[in-house]
Design brief:
Elements: H1 12-19, H2 23-27, H3 31-46, H4 54-67, H5 72-80, H6 84-101, H7 118-124, H8 127-147, H9 166-179, H10 185-195
Subcellular location: Nucleus
Organism: Homo sapiens (Human)
GO biological process, one term: snRNA processing
Length: 199
Amino acid sequence: MTECTSLQFVSPFAFEAMQKVDVVCLASLSDPELRLLLPCLVRMALCAPADQSQSWAQDKKLILRLLSGVEAVNSIVALLSVDFHALEQDASKEQQLRHKLGGGSGESILVSQLQHGLTLEFEHSDSPRRLRLVLSELLAIMNKVSESNGEFFFKSSELFESPVYLEEAADVLCILQAETESCSVAQAGVQWQDHSPLA
């Protein structure tokens, strides 16, 4: 198992700036600090806000300016363009299938047979398929957790353990958690973090 030495966490300053939507503070963040917040910022800039005030309209313009020119923004925008209702329905069917056939089953409704390994498949996939790959992997881990009866176990994940894809997989996890509330993705993500070697 490889250590991810470049793994970063959101600083208290960045967290507070995000929590308060303090655009001035957000603009002062370094590129690596800003990278960690990109899924939230992109979603904030693109989704219809509850706040219709003039001050939010100004803040939104500043956020859009902050995001312009950041290469990873385009892939996050593409993630937000997916039909999440259909994704949730397929995820629900997959959970039922995994429960019925057992977690070890290679059957999947979310993902058809993989032509290559999971990480290579992730690299060559478009946004809808990336969401499905990550969600399928999360559901497999979630199923393993429920079968473990509280006992410690190790479940390796080629995708989640690869430092090369960590940022992009984290983007997908953030979008899944925000957009698929009824899909238990948040719980699956928490369970993965609890048992991940990176936790």
